[in-house]
Amino acid sequence: MTAQLNARGDVAVLVPAAGAGLRLGPGGPKALRLLAGEPLLVHAVRRIAAAPSVRLIVVAAPAAEVEAVRALLAPVAAVTVVPGGAERQHSVAAALAVVPAEVGIVLVHDAARALTPAELIESVAAAVRAGRPAVIPVLPVIDTIKEVGLADAAEVVLGTVDRSVLRSVQTPQGFRREVLAAAHAAGLGAHTDDAGMVEKAGVPVTCVPGSELAMKITRPLDLVIAEALLAVA
Ligand code: CTP
Ligand code: MG
User: Fold this and answer.
1) What's this model's pTM, rounded to 2 decimal places?
2) Which residue from 13, 44, 84, 89 could staple onto 60, CB 3.0 to 4.6 Å apart?
């Protein structure tokens, strides 16, 4: 059934989905790879569409797959599909460009985090609505982290990092629309997430609790884990 988005919602969700999925191994663009018989992108969009404040979903698809992605998502929700770019940030910029000016809150959410619950989308949006200009979902770091260097052609430990001040960062990352637009207008630079761009502009970034279900499907093992998580997601 096609989900109805909330025409009075104040949130646009941008879904970069144009990556090749190289680390997942051969099998085509990652967003179109199957999890329990359905493409990752379908799982992701279904959950985004279930978040009550979402008014608009913009997917950045692989350029060669735009029509196929439109057809794939039409039965899931009313989604705008644009061609993505060579780097993730170009895909985000292409999606941001079609968000109407009256939408005040923009979330950026990886298609690869296909099992992210609607509740996390709402909690990030709520923190932006409450006045935070930039919001990221985070989890504590579980492993011990070492800083290393090279000595006599071997990797050696320089020190142990205090992990209590470290966080693993997920998506969706939420922004006041003008904050994200200004960061993009200022030039892209190399950042591995969207908050990195606004941090550089001096904007405070606030953390909210993330979700194990928002794990990023990156390597083949992640698909196995995601399949198991589907039982609870
Ligand atoms: N993405 C995108 N445009 C790109 C590169 C990435 O829209 N040019 C998207 C991916 O589709 C994914 C998200 O950004 O949903 C996170 O990227 P990542 O997990 O790195 O996915 P891929 O780039 O597809 O994977 P890989 O790096 O292994 O090739
Ligand atoms: Mg990538």
Assistant:
1) 0.96
2) 84
